[in-house]
Every structure is written in C-alpha cells, then in structure tokens.
Amino acid sequence: MRKIAGLIAVVLVIASSAQVWAEGLDALIEAGKSMADINVAMEEETRAFNAVKAAIDRGAIKKGLSKASIRAQYGEPVIINDDSATKREKWAYKPATSSFLKGTRIYLYFSTGGMLDEIRVVD
Q1: Burial label, 89 (beta-carbon count in 10 A; 0-12, 13-18, 19+)
Q2: Taking CA atoms, which of 2, 48, 111, 123 is between 20 and 30 Å from 70?
Q3: Which residues contact 43 (CB under 8 A, 6 or more apart)?
Q4: CATH topology of domain 2-122
C-alpha cells in the first residue's frame, strides 16, 4: 500500500510539473508571436523608409503631392505629429535601425491643405 501511495505521489508531482511547464511553454509561444509581430513591423518600417528615400532620390516625391498619394504609394510613416515650430503636419520615416534622435530619418511637412511643402533628410 505504501508503494502505491508513493507512486501516486510521484505521479501527482510529475503531473503538476507538466502543467507548470505547459503554462511556461504557452508564455514562450506567445512571446515568440509577439517578437514575430515586432519583426514584421520593423521590416515594414524599413521598407516604407527605403521606398520614400528612393522616390525622393529620383524626384518622384516633391512639393505639391498630397498626403493621400504619398501614403498610398509609399506606405505609412512611423509617426505623424504637428510640428509646433512650423505649424504643419510632420511625417517621419526611418529604418528600424535608426531612432528618432540618431540615424537617418526623413521628415515630410504638409501644409494645412494637406499638400507636401518641405522634405528634410537627416543623417
């Protein structure tokens, strides 16, 4: 009887450990999915930056273009905000390897009518 009770205790310990391990595995799987989402976002950020940079270099993005046409052709900026100094809407594009303070960035400024009126490339 003692052997059976001991065996049952061992089985219960193993079963509860397996449950904890399974819960930990679920957390790791979720973290992996989150990292995959982050990687996709970083790739998209860099893709949009590269598309905007190439378009600026070849003269396809120039003053007078609308926000809608730039967004449709080249993708979403990383951030959109109102520039308090110029009172214009400012879009920022950057590769994932850059920050907002360091590295290459492109800023597009739009007039109140929604038309591009300035391009700044910062290295």
Answers
A1: middle
A2: 123
A3: 96
A4: Beta-lactamase Inhibitory Protein; Chain:B, domain 1 (3.30.1450)
